[in-house]
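User: Can you help me understand a structure? I only have the sequence.
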Amino acid sequence: MALTGIVLAFPPQASAVLNAFDAPRPPVRRPGGDPLMPQPLLTAERALALGTGAAAPEAPRLLAVPSTVTKAWRLEVQAADGTRHAVSIDDATGQTTLEPAQRRGDAIGAWMRRVHQGRADGPVWAALAGLCGALPTLLAITGVLMWLRKRRNRAALRNDATAFPDRRLISAENA
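Assistant: Let's start by predicting it. Here is the structure, written out as C-alpha cells:
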C-alpha cells in the first residue's frame, strides 16, 4: 500500500521508472485542467458517433468535452480484451485521430491507483485498503501512548528510590 502511495505522490518520477524499459516517447499532454469550450461546434451525440465509427468495434467508455486549449473531443474506448485507448475528435473539422496506446508502465500505474484507492477487487479489497489506511494511524497513537507510559514509569522509579533499593534489581524493561 505504501508503494502505491509513493507512485501516486510522485507521478512523473513513477512514470519514468515504470516506463524505463519501454521505447521512449514524447510526453502527451492530456486534457483535463483547462477550461471547457463554452460553445463546441459538434454536439456530444455527433462526436460520439464520429469517435465510435473510427474506433469500431471497441465499446465507448468515456467522452470528454473539448477544452479551450485542445479544441478536441476525447473518446476513450475499450476492446473486448479489456485494453483501452482513445480517439481524438477535432471539434472544428470532425476529423478523428487515434491516440497512441497506453504504455505498459502507465497501465501499471493505473492499476496501482485502483489498488491504492480500494477499487481493484470489490468490497473485500476496499475494506482491506481502508484498514491499511487506518492501521498506521492506530499504531502511531498506541506507540506514543506506550512511550508516554514508559516515560512516566521511569520518572516514578527515579523519584522513588525506595521502591528498588538495589538498582541492579531493576529489569531492562523498567530501566
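Now, to help you interpret it: The mean pLDDT is 80. The chain is about 45% helix and 15% strand. Let me know which part you'd like to focus on.
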